[in-house]
Every structure is written in structure tokens, then in C-alpha cells.
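Case study 2.
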Amino acid sequence: MDPISFLGCGSWGGALGDVLARKGVPVIFWHRNPSTIDQIQKSRKHYLVEDLEFSKNVDFTNDIKYAINSSSIVVLAIPSQSIRKLLIENNSIFNNKKIIVTVSKGIEVDSLMTMSEVINDVYGKDYKNTVVLSGPSHAEEVVKKFPTTLVASSIDISSSKTIQHLFSNEYLRTYLNTDVKGVEIGGALKNVMAIAAGICDGINYGDNSKAALMTRGMAEIIRLGKKMGAKGKTFQGLSGFGDLIVTCLSKHSRNRKVGQAIGEGESLLDIQKRMNMVAEGVLTTKSVHQLRLKFGLEMPIHEAMYEILFMGKNPKDSVSELMKRKLSNEHKK
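Prediction:
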């Protein structure tokens, strides 16, 4: 069969490529840094996930044209804010017969588009072969073959079924969901809540605090999701509460780690300088702030996160203000 090409070879892209390689599917990884490609080709080991060693049917390149032209299925596994630029630069290579799979979780700053919307914006609304692959999953655990579940979502059922079967084996099970917008919003906004959960850890708040944060945070996510056209029930599933739980609680979550460092008193600028990977929740917080203003929504936890990350507000002051808000019913109409 044709190889599956991954544009990006970070931890999650690497783990997904490993899943396919173990099924005997040839895989091509593109990375923009030639030295990183040379390092992986020589060692056959991933530069971020120590337990990930690539098999012989995995190839590496820094020639993006070769990677795209070699496959009918291309997986976008780069930071969400970089996707538009990559698509525009390679506009002439893609065609509407290719299935584009996006595994990046974010909302583009300024345009406020999800990743599937960015793809459609660049290639035209008739590009129907876009599939969103999301769900509660950390690369470190997939590589160890721990049971994991995902969701494949597309407006084209044939494309989503193709990806469902491709990314399913004895330890990875992929479900279908037709609510593309809901799957993407759940995957993006849970990263903001993961930073907030990390702040709780850094301050040394307990389980009560984190449970309240996650539950009320999801209420805000659903509020925004419905306003943007998503289905409420999607947030009860894998790409909603499932992804929220794993990202807020896991030791592997880079967004939670960012929050913990902030809760311990470190500045966001210093944290970002020493990080090897992108924490998508930081810029997603900025996007959510713009969406909240656009739709006139009440999202106090997300707004507190914006003030903490971008206005330098003390997290403890934000928590105090949240707790002193006017009392209300749990479920608003």
C-alpha cells in the first residue's frame, strides 16, 4: 500500500506513526529541521519519547514535497498556529483527492478558526476529505501499548471510516463522530483547563478544587461549543470529558505542567523559553478570549485564565474572585 505521510514528527505524530508501522503500513515522517531528521535516521529513536524506537518501514525526510506526493493520506501533526502557513506554502501539491488528517488541537488566533476550518479556508469549502482525529491520548502511553480510544470526525463518512480502520488495532480503538466542530472545540479548549488544573497543583489545592474546575470549565466549553454550532452530547464523549480528564490529571500533559509552574510562581515567558514542546493551551486561551467577546458569553474561568497568562494576574486573586461571584443555579437556561 501507499505510505502514510506525517507532516511533523513530534511526540503525538511519532506515536501515531508507530501505530501504523506496527501494522505493517509504510510511514514517512517529514520534519523541517534536517539535523533532527539525521538524528532520528541514525538512532531510529524518537527525540522526545524515549520508549519510541522506529521500525524499518518508517522513512524520514525534510523534503515536504516528497512527503506529500508519496501518499494519498497526509497527517498534519504540527502546532495548530503553524498549519495555515504550511498549507499555503504547499498549495500546489495538495489535491482534493487526498485525505488530510489533522491531529493538532487548537483554535487559530485572529481568524478564530478550528483546524478543519483553516484547511477549508485555504483549499476551498469543497475540500471534504478532512478528518479530525482526537480524544484522550498521550503519546507516552500509546507507545507502551496501553489501551487508548480516539474519535475520527469528518463531513465525509467514507474518509472518517478509512481513518477509523487505519488507526485501530488491539490497543487503539477509534470511534466515529459526525460533529466535527464539537470534536475540535473539545480538543482545543481542554488544553486551557489543563493549564488551570496545573495551577491548582502548583498552588497545592486539592482534589475538590480540581473536580470543581473541570466540571465548571466543561460547562463553559459546552456553552461556547453550542454557540458555535456544536452538539452538546459531543462534550459528554471522548473528545469532550474524556480528553479533559486525561489532560487535566496526567503527568504527561505539557499544558498541565505549564500551569503547575505558573502556580509555583514562575513566569509564562520563562516557562516557554525552557520548553521543548508547544503547549497549545496558551494561545488557545487568547482565541477563547476573543470568541467570548464575539459571542457575548459568560466564561469566568476561561477569562480568569486569560488574565493570568496575558495580564500577569495573581492566580490566587483570580480564584478568590471566582469563588465570590454572585451565587446562581448550576444549570443555566
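The radius of gyration is 20 Å.
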